[in-house]
């Protein structure tokens, strides 16, 4: 863990922050109809894919139609979760004053209630990014994702917990807001989460009923295949979202920080922490769209309220600023980042390897140890 104060001088931090503020203001001033057209077109595409997917599942007795239906529905759920839901709820389009694009009104196609998510993600995660014991996204309360998290035999199951989280990611995000780990430790009381639990029950019941009861029943004798198709689409979305999010936060070179070294943090230091605590994923235009442009996690952590479609535009400038100040800009293809994350998950499941401390020596003169 490298101290933030050791990276740049106070003067450099001030200039660094000013350059990033100027970059942000330039993009804000340029926002307009093109950004609105983009998100509205994407919403129409997502809705079309969902209608097509559910329609094709009606013909699920014909295998190609079933697979095509699952594919279309998977893409619809990925777009809704990543490029639309996540970004709209960040307030990236609040400036439009369009109720349909309001961060406070939007509800996404996942079991995690938007109100709960906005607090745990928009506020907690983006304020305390990668600060141990503050950012609950480090390990999601069940994984050891940093060597400074004290090892416990429980963490031997790290790879198993990570696999289960990937398979049921939307449910993991939902339960994340209950802070069960802190309740178990006695740091929080179960009664404190009464309102959170109520929202979870309502949203989960609605989502479960839609995907696993209503739509399967509408297909009559094809209900079992429709149910399987919906479950498959949710699985694809879960695995994709887990992969993108973990590759943006937990590759080997990404750093974490203590509360002490981030006390009285100024704007430039906050920007610095976002860069050191994030990683990008390289890829083409379609890949970036399907990732919600969270493949540009560095830019997202710097400017979470800018429309994500702008991240590819500003990424070269951010990278140039990092180069100017001698800062790392972590990026790599998906397979490389996934391997790095998987390796970290396995490595941190094991106890820390500590080097034995050398025996003290009494020195006579310059080099010779004293006789026993």
TrEMBL record:
Where does the record place the Fatty acid desaturase domain? 65-331
GO terms for biological process, alphabetical: lipid metabolic process
Which branch of life, at top level?
Bacteria
Membrane-crossing segments per the record? none
Q: Which GO terms describe its cellular component?
A: membrane
Which region ranges are annotated with the description Disordered?
350-372
Name of the featured protein: Fatty acid desaturase
């Amino acid at each position: 863990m490298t101290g933030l104060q050791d990276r740049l001088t106070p003067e450099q931090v001030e200039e660094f922050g000013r350059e990033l503020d100027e970059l942000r203001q330039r993009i804000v001033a340029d926002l307009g109809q093109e950004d609105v057209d983009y998100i509205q077109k994407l919403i129409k595409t997502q809705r079309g894919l969902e209608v097509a997917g559910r329609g094709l599942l009606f013909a699920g007795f014909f295998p190609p139609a079933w697979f095509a239906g699952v594919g279309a529905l998977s893409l619809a759920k990925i777009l809704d979760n990543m490029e639309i839901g996540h970004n709209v709820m960040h307030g990236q389009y609040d400036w439009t004053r369009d109720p349909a694009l309001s961060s406070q009104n939007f509800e996404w196609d996942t079991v995690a209630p938007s109100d709960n998510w906005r607090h745990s993600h928009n506020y907690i995660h983006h304020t305390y990014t990668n600060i141990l014991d503050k950012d609950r996204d480090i390990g999601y309360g069940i994984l050891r994702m940093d060597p400074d998290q004290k090892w416990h035999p429980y963490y031997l199951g790290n790879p198993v917990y990570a696999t289960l989280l990937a398979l049921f990611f939307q449910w993991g995000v939902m339960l994340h807001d209950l802070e069960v780990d802190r309740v178990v430790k006695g740091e929080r009381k179960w009664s404190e989460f009464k309102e959170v639990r109520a929202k979870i029950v309502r949203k989960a019941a609605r989502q479960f009923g839609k995907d696993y009861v209503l739509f399967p029943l509408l297909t009559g004798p094809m209900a079992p295949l429709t149910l399987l198709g919906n479950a498959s689409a949710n699985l694809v979305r879960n695995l994709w979202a887990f992969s993108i999010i973990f590759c943006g936060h937990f590759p080997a070179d990404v750093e974490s920080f203590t509360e002490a070294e981030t006390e009285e943090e100024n704007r430039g230091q906050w920007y610095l922490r976002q860069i050191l605590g994030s990683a990008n994923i390289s890829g083409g235009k379609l890949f970036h769209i399907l990732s919600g442009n969270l493949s540009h996690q560095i830019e997202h952590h710097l400017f979470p309220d800018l429309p994500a479609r702008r991240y590819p535009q500003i990424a070269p400038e951010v990278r140039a600023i990092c180069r100017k100040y001698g800062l790392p800009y972590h990026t790599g293809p998906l397979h490389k980042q996934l391997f790095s994350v998987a390796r970290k998950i396995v490595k941190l499941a094991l106890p820390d390897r500590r080097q034995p401390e050398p025996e003290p020596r009494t020195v006579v003169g310059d080099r010779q140890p004293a006789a026993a």
